[in-house]
# Entry
Amino acid sequence: MESTLRIARLGTIALLQLENPSGYPRLERSLLDALRRNLDALAGEPSCAGIVITGTALAFAAGAEISELAALGAAEAFEFSRLGQRVMNRIEQFSKPVVAAIRGYCLGGGLDLALACHVRIAGKESVFAHPGGSLGILTGWGGTGRLPRIVGRGRALEILATGRSITSTEAFAMRLINRLVPDEDVLGAAIHLLRREPAGPA
# Structure
């Protein structure tokens, strides 16, 4: 079941929603490419004041699709990694505010995506983890660099080495997320933040 990207406009705010029929969006190559193309388009739109990236009620994003990764040759895997890096860097360097509205699971590459956003708002039932270490996989999308800058080197090493799950309360305490709200209020809080914040370099 391939993940897709749904785009909506809420006045001056662009909503990029990751979707999958299972409820667990995966960061497949096609979805990353869709994110890249839409970010490029929105960068040139004067009417866009900010972006909200969100997933489903079950998951912000559940990482890359492992079966897709397993089928890649060396050259293809390198290009896939580079594509993910371009998308994450594009978000981090975006000239307008980008907010991650997180509900449910935020795992692996999904956590890399959230870390690249300028602000992270999460629901109280959300769960965070970078399980790649336990699978023998090291993220290639910048999470190993962004995570220690946000939560500190020691915490980042522990999160990456153990792959353990982190509750939303713990994530808020370590400043992994900026705001913690009831799950049903996550998207509204993200939109409200952008409507109050001036557009411009983040």
Residues 74-92 form the longest helix (19 residues). The two ends are 35 Å apart (CA to CA). The chain has nine helices and ten strands.
